[in-house]
């Protein structure tokens, strides 16, 4: 495909996402549910890039060079700026989404991991796994404004209480920290499972969920009492965790058992566990497709996998799970109820973080 045509196609796709927003709602038709007009950003930890992927067409649209070992990715409420934590560079890459280029970087603590952005897009909290801190970043000035001590090896973070507090997973000590952002202090801790990684909180809710990589479980944490109120067994080595917008459905990536778990969050019960380590139809990347005459339709090549599900994003209604596979360098779309994988698309090496392009403010 002509390079100029490819750039035009990419600009058109991104402009469409910026104009109407990418729906993360599963749409039912005569066949399985699909994501309509969904474009995602994927961090590729193994080659220091971010992939732009159209889940509907099955194409990787672009790759953006960022810092060393990119981990998490977040998008601001306007849909025009993305932020990537570079875990081996101790900084945050700032991406101009329309231009699909890194514009600058923001220094933070040592080995940043997960990030959480305020709903108004004014600030962000970053978990720095290498120095037991979280950074607060003013996104207007692109400067770190505060560093707060938490537990050992913090990984996951989410905001709650009208973005005035943060909940942080401390991988190195099997606890969760609660941080008051106004005072800049850790106010409490609660014990969870072994090696807690990801934390999820639905908008406006007072319950957090934590994946415990070392104890094959998910913890339920009450944010008002700042205490752990339940533990649920899932597959081996749960890592990524996604939540529906209403907080009723969770999707869990069970890394070592090659599975995805679906959880009814209200009942706090696992409703399905799907093995994803079999043969998948893997769509070739857009770059590979461009060498063929059928570049507009991704070829589906059978590929034997032993999938290592890393991170998860849920459709807003909880019907679909989008997940990254470290073993095969793919991003995948799986029906949460049936376990059928609808799409598997090649991206960069060791894909980690996921975020959807959203409707601008």
SSE blueprint:
Elements: H1 3-20, E1 26-27, E2 34-35, E3 39-44, E4 49-54, E5 59-65, E6 70-75, E7 81-86, E8 91-96, E9 101-107, E10 112-117, E11 123-128, E12 133-138, E13 143-149, E14 154-160, E15 165-170, E16 175-180, E17 185-191, E18 196-201, E19 207-212, E20 217-222, E21 227-233, E22 238-243, E23 249-254, E24 259-264, E25 269-275, E26 279-283, H2 286-289, E27 300-304, E28 309-314, E29 320-325, E30 330-335, E31 341-346, E32 351-356
Antiparallel strand pairs: 1-2, 3-4, 3-32, 4-5, 6-7, 7-8, 8-9, 10-11, 11-12, 12-13, 14-15, 15-16, 16-17, 18-19, 19-20, 20-21, 22-23, 23-24, 24-25, 26-27, 28-29, 29-30, 30-31
In short:
The chain has helices at residues 3-20, 286-289, and strands spanning 26-27, 34-35, 39-44, 49-54, 59-65, 70-75, 81-86, 91-96, 101-107, 112-117, 123-128, 133-138, 143-149, 154-160, 165-170, 175-180, 185-191, 196-201, 207-212, 217-222, 227-233, 238-243, 249-254, 259-264, 269-275, 279-283, 300-304, 309-314, 320-325, 330-335, 341-346, 351-356.
Q: For the CA atoms, what is the radius of gyration?
A: 19 Å
Look at the helices and sheets and give the structural class.
mainly beta
User: How helix-rich are the residues, as a percent range?
Assistant: under 10%
CATH topology: Methylamine Dehydrogenase, Chain H
Mean pLDDT score: 86
